[in-house]
TrEMBL record:
It holds the Pfam family Ham1p_like. GO terms for molecular function: dITP diphosphatase activity; ITP diphosphatase activity; metal ion binding; nucleotide binding; ribonucleoside triphosphate phosphatase activity; XTP diphosphatase activity. The gene is rdgB. Belongs to the HAM1 NTPase family. This is dITP/XTP pyrophosphatase.
Length: 193
């Protein structure tokens, strides 16, 4: 099955393709002629995932899905949450985001955090939402070079390494996105797509 995944992030594509397997050919917005930045202007993960999926569906008429992810840090009242991409600056500056997170957590004993992903699937024009969560903690300096975003600062529960010290396969065993994508895959199989 050909399906558009609303991302131009190569890390996300690799992760999601590995979970879905070879039965699904993931197309990027660019593959389908959508080259502009896809708007995500809502104040919830659900709202943003839905907005991105609808935007692509309206332009291409194809089945598609979009994900939106937030890092929710307990000691920061759930921040950066839906604002994770633009936490420190208006751009998607991962290094600046990580520096700001460490600054805001300085001296705080509670390091609990979780990643939450919401996926919006538009299949035959109908919307379906899937959620994935991984609980863990934020360490006090960047460790590891794999992955992207907050990966070098996040250790999932049950592990002693950050996501940035894991292969794609290891991250996919427990990650928020992989959990949401497995629900998406189960749904697609159930409707024989
Ligand atoms: P997005 O809007 O879904 O791309 O996610 C917002 C921000 O959350 C990104 O810019 C990253 O900083 C962060 N993020 C999303 N997914 C991950 C992940 O799997 N690991 C680490 N950081 C992530």
């Amino acid at each position: 099955m050909d399906i558009i995944f609303a991302t131009n992030n190569a890390h996300k594509l690799t992760e999601v393709q590995a979970v879905l397997g070879p039965g699904y050919k993931l197309l990027t917005p660019r593959d389908c002629g959508v080259t502009e930045e896809i708007p995500e202007e809502q104040d919830t993960l659900e709202g943003n995932a839905s907005q991105k999926a609808h935007y692509l569906h309206e332009r291409t008429g194809m089945d598609c899905f979009a994900d939106d992810t937030g890092l929710e840090v307990e000691a920061l009242g759930g921040a950066p949450g839906v604002h994770s991409a633009r936490y420190a600056t208006d751009g998607h500056d991962f290094a600046a985001n990580n520096r700001l997170l460490l600054k805001n957590l300085k001296g705080k004993a509670n390091r609990r955090a979780r990643f939450r992903t919401v996926i919006s699937l538009l299949l035959d024009g109908e919307e379906h939402l899937f959620e994935g969560i991984v609980e863990g903690r934020i360490i006090d300096r960047e460790t590891g070079h794999e992955g992207f975003g907050f990966d070098p600062l996040f250790i999932p529960d049950g592990y002693d390494r950050t996501f940035a010290q894991m292969t794609t396969g290891e991250k996919n065993e427990v990650s928020h996105r992989a959990r949401a994508v497995r629900k998406l895959a189960a749904y697609l199989h159930s409707v024989e797509k």
